[in-house]
Amino acid sequence: MTIALNTQSLAQLPQTVAHPSYDRGALKAGIVHVGVGNFHRAHMAHYLDRLFAMGESHDWAIRGAGVRAGDARMRDALAGQDWLTTVVELDPNGLSARVIGSMIDFTEVDPAKTIAAMANPEVKIVSLTITEGGYFVDAKTDGFDAAHPEIAGDAATPDAPRTVFGMILAALRQRRAAGLDPFTVMSCDNLPENGHVAKRTVCGLAALIDPAEADWVAANVAFPSSMVDCITPATSDRERNLVAEKFGITDAAPVVCEPFRQWVLEDKFPQGRPALEKVGAEFVANVAEYELMKLRILNGGHAAIAYPSALIGHHFVHDAMADPLIRDWLIALEEREIVPTLSPIDGVSYADYQALIVDRFSNPEVGDTIPRLCLDGSNRQPKFILPTLSDALASGKAYDGLALETALWCRYCAGVDETGNAIAPNDDNHAELKQRALEAKDRPQAFLENTTVFGTLGQNADYSAAFARHLSDLWNKGVKATLTAYIAG
């Protein structure tokens, strides 16, 4: 028999399950967090829960918020359990569970109520995990996409916004009118210079509404950058059953994650912040070098293994990493082409970080899936692979394996694996990608002419030639032979 998770049942949980020992009723919500998904609860909420357990920073609890239908579903799932979440760390040496209590409320998914929550005087930080594709970035220019219909809608009706950025601006206007200091906007998404990107989007929208407001935001609102890291698979019946069977808890929305997390932040919080350094967060002068390391080695590594693994039939990431072909391809690409594009960081060994990434990807308990890594390639490739490729081309460094990675993505976008099984659509731009990928079988440049993704990269003759050669090999010789040739050098 399992225990239904809620405040009253905490005392009944098995002794092996850690749970809040602090008084959640005495917490105050100093943070509004938009996007209460698995990653947020495994990462930021976990850090804060451990901090609260130390008797620290009890005025920095989280009030959840959201703008999408998925946010409303998450709110419904958590409401019946008093916003508590079971987080299971998937350590190969033994699983452990902790019930997280750092979120004390979740406002209804309604723009007016979200704005009111942000405008509350007790709120000092508005944080975001809205996915890499949620910042309205124009892939052609890598700048703010002022023409996006949702942005245009908010610019036309600034007092009735539909995007989180419009809601942030509306809340800032309310606070300013009331004589309150602005909150800090903290992105927790996997984006290079995520603070800069968030600021550019907020200020870009503000400029469409009132240029003077944009100037005020730029001068008065802090947007610290951060690097976040913790592999967190999606929750399915597999994870819910695990929590029930191993720990005796019925949780509508548990989270499983690897036993590793990292958070590196700029210390730019004018209205204060929780003492996160006491639970392992790092505050540094230059986050960019850390986030670039992570984005290229970890996220780029995920992209590198995703498409060949899918094409040859691997489903779980750890099974792919147990395949010497995939493992050796990842190691060779990172050592030869990804790491050479990075500048040294004092006190950081790239070799050690690479080895850590290989171990993390190989963890069989995580159960991360290749289909998850393949998601949303048209947004992920321009963030995790193409900047590395551009840097390599510009500096005269090796790029052949990076060209192969993009060819693997093209081959995957054709919609069928090497045994003839159909690949389900998993990209908002699936139809165009598939059409271009099929045309590229005979005319490789067709795929690179997608300037929304590739920008001007497709005009580079050397890269285009390497891409075409690898794509031809993938179709005519197959994935295994093509990877084997690259590994052999």
From TrEMBL:
Does this UniProt record's set of keywords contain Secreted? no
User: What is this enzyme's EC?
Assistant: 1.1.1.67
Ordered alphabetically, the record's keywords are: Oxidoreductase
Known SUPFAM superfamilies for this protein?
6-phosphogluconate dehydrogenase C-terminal domain-like, NAD(P)-binding Rossmann-fold domains
Q: In the record, what terms sit under GO molecular function?
A: mannitol 2-dehydrogenase activity
Which Pfam families does the entry mention?
A: Mannitol_dh (PF01232), Mannitol_dh_C (PF08125)
Q: Which residues form the Mannitol dehydrogenase C-terminal domain?
A: 286-475
Q: What's the top EC group for this one?
A: oxidoreductase
Domain (Mannitol dehydrogenase N-terminal): residue spans on this chain: 30-278
Q: Which superkingdom?
A: Bacteria
Q: Which InterPro entries match?
A: 6-PGluconate_DH-like_C_sf, 6PGD_dom2, Mannitol_DH, Mannitol_DH/Oxidoreductase, Mannitol_DH_C, Mannitol_DH_N, NAD(P)-bd_dom_sf
List the Gene3D superfamilies hit by this protein, alphabetically: N-(1-d-carboxylethyl)-l-norvaline Dehydrogenase, domain 2, NAD(P)-binding Rossmann-like Domain
Q: What is the name of this protein?
A: Mannitol 2-dehydrogenase
Q: Which organism is it from?
A: Pseudoprimorskyibacter insulae
Record lineage: Bacteria, Pseudomonadati, Pseudomonadota, Alphaproteobacteria, Rhodobacterales
Gene for this protein? mtlK_1
